[in-house]
Amino acid sequence: MKDQSRFSELSSMSRRRFLVTTGSSTLASYLMLNRPAWALNADVARSGNFGELDATAEEGIDLYLENQDLLIGGRVGRGITINGSIPGPVIRMTEGKDALIRVHNRLPESSSIHWHGILLPFDMDGVPGISFAGIPAGETFTYRFPVRQNGTYWYHSHSGFQEQLGHYGQLIVDPAQTDPVDYDVEHTVVLSDWTFEDPHNVFRNLKTIEGYYNFQRPTLANIDDQMQATGMALGEVIGKRLSWQGMRMDPTDIADVTGATYTFLMNGKSADENPVFLAEPGQKVSCVSSMPRPRPTMMFAFQACR
Length: 306
Fold this sequence. Notes:
Layout: H1 2-33, H2 37-40, E1 52-54, E2 61-72, E3 75-82, E4 90-94, E5 98-105, E6 114-116, E7 140-146, E8 151-156, E9 168-174, E10 185-195, H3 199-208, H4 223-230, H5 234-246, E11 262-266, E12 284-290, E13 297-303
Parallel strand pairs: 1-4, 2-5, 4-9, 10-12
Antiparallel strand pairs: 2-3, 5-7, 6-8, 8-9, 10-11, 12-13
């Protein structure tokens, strides 16, 4: 009788222990699976944490090219960082001075930096196979050239698809004289895109089907929707589609690569990360913007709202 009572007690304790252990494990697993990306990857640096360097300072600057894992839009991606960041640091220069930039290539492949829009000697332009041989893996190349202009530009790799992997940054050349734009606060903005796909795969997909990433293409399934949206008859819709087909284009072909694979970034941050630019009420703000894709650069000023 005592043995049976003791067995019952042990069984009850075993059940309780089992339930507690299972419940604890389930809760721990739930919390682990539902932790935000920054908590799961606390040791991975975030994209967008870039600094600023003066290439016309007497001692010049050093840029380090490396493969690195970064948190981009809440996910871990492997890209090419410049001084540990995507985009690379803002490089400033002053018109009338000499720029001195040492580029240390720590990548397992050749690389380069092209100074987009800058007037300089041809051998400093940074285009492999045209103006120089490139920067071999493990080696350093020194760029030195006089700064003959001012304005907002950008710099980027001209080697393979390295630019798509994050090898770019903003370049600001300050005028030799007083800046004609009056402002109290300056914010630099780099608009770019990122894909977690291998850029070589993206290129191969586009070469296979030019509209591979276009999910708004005219199809048989949406022909009635087009008729209702445009008020066109069936023959008119078909005629319009044949016209586009004759040009080998899609009417929605705004860009070859879309948000189907691209995450669009502002200073290395996605829209979900909510990039913030601060100014005090009444301050005049200068916003200096570079856009690797599309190519133009711009600079504009505005006044902070009260």
